[in-house]
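Renewal narrative, Specific Aim 1. Our central claim is that a sequence can be written position by position from structural information alone. The example that follows is taken directly from our test logs and has not been curated for this report. It begins with the structure tokens describing the chain, in the order in which they were read.
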């Protein structure tokens, strides 16, 4: 039986590697989560913005921000977050929605904000791409 399994793995190496990588990514998401932050959909984010006066923080780079962003969001690139954290100190108890292009960089930013004592940090699931796909407004001002 082991010989057949080994033969199958050798003949289908690409599929075995893809299955392993896929499993590893799922495990990573399960273990690491969203940097300790709640993931919110674009609809949930708009409700937080409208009902709880949530602050949106965009952690993308300048060229991404300039191409379009969520209206009234603050632009603090992920690379600058540690040195600009002071700008957000007064919002420690307020709902914060962090976004990037797809949700990966914002997940990292959420983890950093949680470690700094921010209480209500939310990662925009799917990032600005999901926001656009939902047909929600984009600003370039």
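The sequence written for that structure reads:
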């Amino acid at each position: 039986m082991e010989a057949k399994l080994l033969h199958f793995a050798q003949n289908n190496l690409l599929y075995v590697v893809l299955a392993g990588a896929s499993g590893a990514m799922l495990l990573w998401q399960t273990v690491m989560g969203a940097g300790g932050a709640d993931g919110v959909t674009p609809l949930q984010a708009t409700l937080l913005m409208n009902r709880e006066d949530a602050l949106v923080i965009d952690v993308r780079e300048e060229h991404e921000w300039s191409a379009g962003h969520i209206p009234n969001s603050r632009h603090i690139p992920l690379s600058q977050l540690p040195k600009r954290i002071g700008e957000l100190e007064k919002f420690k108890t307020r709902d914060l929605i962090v976004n990037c292009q797809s949700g990966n960089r914002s997940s990292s930013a959420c983890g950093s904000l949680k470690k700094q004592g921010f209480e209500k940090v939310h990662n925009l699931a799917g990032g600005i791409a999901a926001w656009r796909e939902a047909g929600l407004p984009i600003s370039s001002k």
